[in-house]
Every structure is written in C-alpha cells, then in structure tokens.
Write a structure and sequence with these properties.
alpha+beta, three-stranded antiparallel beta sheet, 6 helices, binds zinc ion
Length: 205
C-alpha cells in the first residue's frame, strides 16, 4: 500500500521512480507490504518465463518465508538512494525520515532488504555525497551502515505518533511494528528485519 500523495513519475535519475505530489512530513508512513501486494512462491516463480521472473526480481523483494512480494499501488517503483528519504529498517513499513517536499523523488535503501539467501550487489548511481558505490548484502552485514539506519529510524519514531497517518487504519490492522510504535516504541532491533518480514505474515517484530 502506498501513500496517496506519492505517485509514479518518469523524470528521475533512474528512469521510473516515485515522487511526492504534496509535502510528506517526516514520520509519515509512505508504504508498507500489505495483503493486496502480489506474492509468488518459489514454485510459482519456477513456472514463469525467465524474463518475467527478472522483472519481478527487479520490482519485488524476497520475504522471510521465501515468497517474492511486489509492492502494490506503484510502490514497487521506489528507487534506491544511499541517503534515502524513506527507511524501513527494524520496522515492517517504510517511513519518511526527512520532510519530503512536493516534487521531490521518494527513495528507500535497498540494503535493508535482507530476505535473499543469496548475496547480491549492484553498482549505485544515486549521486548522494555519501554514496556507498555498491549496494547489496554487504550493507546489512555492516554494523556501521545498520547503525546509521537505526539512528535515522529511531529519530523519527516520535513523529510517527505525531503526524497525520493516511495509512494509519490499515497499518493498525496489518503492521505489528506500527502498533508497537503507537504504544511508545523508542528503539528498533538493530540486528534487523524490515519489510522482508511484514506483519501480515503473523510474525511480530
Ligand atoms: Zn500492498
Ligand atoms: Zn548510492
């Protein structure tokens, strides 16, 4: 599920991406894996043509139960940045960690996606001054990178409780992490799961 004020847009550095159509205050939940997001088991993927699997692999991410999930409502188009405006580390939803102005691209950090049992990496062209150059499995294993994600996520948790949450009703139903944040959660697990273990799988974070 994707925030209504974030929409697909073609004019980004990576081709297709997402852009804020209205200001998105820090603390706003931008997207989360929901029961309407299409998922594919390894057996189902095995029956699809390779080019379709490649496309799903580009758009989706593996869950902790080995299914591939493709974020619905256009959220699958979110590009990576090494200085992302949205983070999900230690949560099962992506939250704006900065105030995102109208017109700005909305990005997340692919390094948090640790559901793939195989190691993977990609060259990064995000253009951030703190670009890591290469993004992949190594990031999640790097304590310094994880610490930076934890710091940015924990800094914004009070704002999650304070700002309007257009997705709040659905989140309360489907996200264990969101309920924990509303209950006053101030720290996240730095060993970390993320949207690879969504609340709708019935697993608490
Ligand atoms: Zn969904
Ligand atoms: Zn980068």
């Amino acid at each position: 599920m994707l925030l209504g004020s974030v929409a697909p847009d073609g004019g980004t550095t990576h081709g297709l991406g997402l852009r804020a159509t209205a200001p998105v205050p820090a603390g706003t939940v931008v997207w989360f894996p929901c029961p309407q997001c299409p998922t594919y088991t390894p057996d189902q993927l095995g029956l699809l043509p390779p080019d379709v699997v490649d496309r799903l692999d580009t758009w989706g991410h593996l869950l902790s139960d080995a299914r591939m999930l493709v974020p619905c409502a256009g959220a699958y188009l979110m590009n990576h940045s090494c200085t992302p405006s949205v983070l999900d580390f230690g949560l099962d939803f992506g939250v704006a960690v900065v105030d995102i102005p109208a017109g700005a691209e909305v990005t997340c950090d692919y390094g948090t996606f640790n559901g793939d049992p195989e190691s993977w990496s990609m060259d990064c062209v995000c253009g951030s001054p703190s670009c890591r150059g290469e993004v992949g499995t190594v990031d999640h294993a790097d304590p310094a990178v994880r610490a930076s994600w934890v710091e940015r996520v924990e800094a914004v948790l009070p704002a999650v409780r304070a700002v309007p949450q257009p997705l709040g009703r659905l989140l309360s139903t489907h996200s264990a992490a969101y309920r924990s944040v509303l209950d006053g959660l101030s720290r996240v697990d730095g060993s970390g799961d993320s949207v690879v273990r969504p609340g709708f799988l019935g697993v608490s974070v």
